Amino acid sequence: MNLISAFADLTMTTEIFESVDPLHLESGEVIKQFQIAYTTYGQLNSDRSNVIWVVHALTGDSKAAEWWNGLIGEDKFFDPANHFIICANLLGSNYGSTNPLSINPESGKPYYYDFPQLTPRDLALSLERLRNYLQLDQIHTLIGGSLGGQVALEWSVTLGQRLKNAVILASTAKSSPWVIGFNETQRMAIESDCTWGEKREDAGLKGLETARAIAMLSYRHPADLRIKQSENDEKLDGFKASSYLRYQGQKLAKRFNALSYWALSKAMDSHDLGRNRGGVEASLAQIEARVLTVGVNSDLLFLPEESQFISQKVRRGTYKEIQSTAGHDAFLIEFEQLTYILKSFYLEN
Ligand SMILES: CC(=O)SCCNC(=O)CCNC(=O)[C@H](O)C(C)(C)COP(=O)(O)OP(=O)(O)OC[C@H]1O[C@@H](n2cnc3c(N)ncnc32)[C@H](O)[C@@H]1OP(=O)(O)O
Ligand SMILES: N[C@@H](CCO)C(=O)O
């Protein structure tokens, strides 16, 4: 499938990669076959050394130049005129890749609740399949934030010398009890929806709205809500903060499904770079690429210390920080600072 982008001079192609080889998951389960939707921008150069691989966060999709439009595009830091930019929709997500609503080849029916447990390592393995298929022997920069950062970190361990630079934003080497706790409250919200458990595409959708509203409180900082959602009137009810969270919940429920959300939030919980590798520090020390970690000073979910820790334990690490009142999601918002941070990283290295 070739799609012409809405961006005038940005050639975008979205395609489907079908893997017919079984994917052996960390849980011991096997996905016999799967598909991955991926989008590319720009062209490979003659020595195929200009690959920028983007990994999206929890509810993102493969169209990175849309949700990261301040970083990817004409005259942006990652410009398709110079780079071959690729982003794949993560396995488990519902933007074209195999997910719980896809047909299980074993039963001929959607997986629904039988979808296997995924980990960031499994997700990295599925991306490795795609890399092999596309014969991309070198990745110049692998970049991802939050869950995308977890997957990028996992992949950095196994890519070895095939990867030159890893940029890990607002993420961690191992999910903290705090992150797992937040995700659990969101799954509890989904479970409390009376349609959860039914085999239908919209199962748990009302619960997903609540889950997103809870999640938003971890993606923002109190200062952000104080700036944007404070009241001018003296009132008893009908607060802006309330309608904001309800709106955010409804917005996600219109574009996502609760089963994918469940699968990917479970994957996020399971993230432990050191599992079966002798611990987190040992696995970070295995990464051969240069690593830039970027924390956000107001991130309440993935704390800046967690990003600092990664840069201290890898062989060649750099830490930079975004200053923002936006909270965790600043890595999707603060393009000017991100551009400056990336420019200095490449100049210094
Ligand atoms: C098809 C797809 O969309 S695929 C993938 C796109 N998404 C991703 O990649 C995931 C990553 N992206 C994100 O998480 C988000 O888009 C972010 C973090 C980048 C930005 O989040 P936003 O929701 O745009 O920002 P913010 O928190 O400021 O909220 C603004 C929205 O809330 C609405 N809003 C603000 N205050 C209120 C209020 N008091 N009451 C009701 N609504 C309100 C605004 O009108 C705006 O609505 P809009 O999104 O319809 O324009
Ligand atoms: N706001 C992000 C999740 C936080 O990393 C998303 O919806 O994907």
From TrEMBL:
It is found in: Cytoplasm. Keywords: Acyltransferase, Amino-acid biosynthesis, Cytoplasm, Methionine biosynthesis, Transferase. SUPFAM superfamilies: alpha/beta-Hydrolases. Pfam families: Abhydrolase_1 (PF00561). The active site is at 146 (nucleophile), 299, 328. Its EC number is 2.3.1.31. GO terms for molecular function: homoserine O-acetyltransferase activity. GO terms for cellular component: cytoplasm. Substrate binds at residues 212, 329. It comes from the Bacteria. Gene3D superfamilies: alpha/beta hydrolase. One of its GO terms (biological process) is methionine biosynthetic process. The keyword Membrane does not apply. It is an enzyme of class 2 (transferase). PANTHER family: HOMOSERINE O-ACETYLTRANSFERASE (PTHR32268:SF11). Transfers an acetyl group from acetyl-CoA to L-homoserine, forming acetyl-L-homoserine. Homodimer. This is Homoserine O-acetyltransferase. It comes from Algoriphagus aquaeductus. The lineage of its organism: Bacteria, Pseudomonadati, Bacteroidota, Cytophagia, Cytophagales. The gene is metXA.
